[in-house]
Design goal:
Number of helices: 8
Largest sheet: 6 strands, mixed
Number of strands: 11
Structural class: alpha/beta
Helix content: 25-40%
Strand content: 25-35%
Shape: elongated
Order of helices and strands: EEHEEHEHHEHEHHEEHEE
Radius of gyration: 19 Å
Distance between the termini: 50 Å
């Protein structure tokens, strides 16, 4: 039996994945899926805790290597691994090759400290907004500035449309201070809006035109490459990612 649990620190932008039990060929997809799902949200780092995990198949380490390369290349996310306390996988990971290509740590606190001294933070714009009627427009201006600064004007219109909706929803429904972060993460422009309401956003049947500002998550769903929500007891982050095509 293999279990996978995920939790988030929204302020430090760290996601933890705790994997316990034994890997089998049939459960390999579940592990890969959990890591991939965490990466697309583009946190600062993802830490995979393997303390109570083992792998008799011999396939976990190559899976980790591929995931770590993809994390940095496509998403600009640091992916770290806490090695098992015992078992075949721990013995396998003592191979110098795996120590060279994987970010391995003996304890969870060591991995957490390493997130502060690992890969540099991506290019980033941020803004703290009150939950008032002007917040969406101020957010839209910041996103426009970011797109111009990063020489990606071809996604500016879509990015402005998305951030207006994200901030409008947070200011209207959460009613708390809104923290906006816009960053370049690998091959994506990433927009994240944090508020103090842990309730997830809800997509309701579209009763109005989909191109009217304030029409909710339908606009985000139509325009973002992907989007989602991270929650804990203190609030949530609703994020959206826009693929940055290569422009010659």
């Amino acid at each position: 039996m293999m279990s996978v649990e995920t939790r988030h620190d929204l302020e430090r932008e760290i996601t933890w994945i705790t994997v316990a039990g034994a890997l089998t060929i049939e459960r390999k997809h579940r592990l890969r899926s959990a890591v991939s799902k965490a990466l697309v949200a583009c946190p600062r780092a993802v830490i995979v805790d393997l303390t109570d995990f083992d792998d008799a198949t011999g396939t976990a380490a190559p899976l980790f290597h591929a995931a770590q390369d993809r994390a940095l290349r496509d998403h600009g996310v640091s992916l770290l691994w806490v090695v098992p306390a015992r078992g075949m996988l721990r013995a396998r990971l003592t191979n110098p090759f795996w120590h060279r290509v994987l970010r391995l740590y003996d304890t969870l606190p060591e991995a957490e400290v390493a997130t502060l001294h690992g890969q540099p933070l991506p290019d980033r714009f941020s803004l703290v907004l009150p939950p008032d009627a002007f917040a969406p427009s101020r957010a839209r201006l910041l996103v426009h500035e970011a797109c111009m600064a990063w020489h990606v004007p071809h996604v500016a219109t879509v990015a402005r449309r998305i951030v207006f909706e994200l901030v409008h929803n947070a200011a209207t429904h959460a009613g708390t201070e809104v923290v906006l972060a816009v960053s370049r993460r690998g091959n994506y422009l990433h927009i994240a809006v944090r508020d103090g309401d842990p309730r997830p956003p809800t997509v309701v049947p579209n009763a109005r035109r989909a191109d009217v500002p304030g029409d909710g998550l339908h606009i985000i769903d139509r325009n973002a490459t992907m989007w989602g929500c991270l929650r804990n007891e203190k609030g949530k982050i609703v994020w959206a990612a826009i693929w940055l095509p290569i422009v010659h």
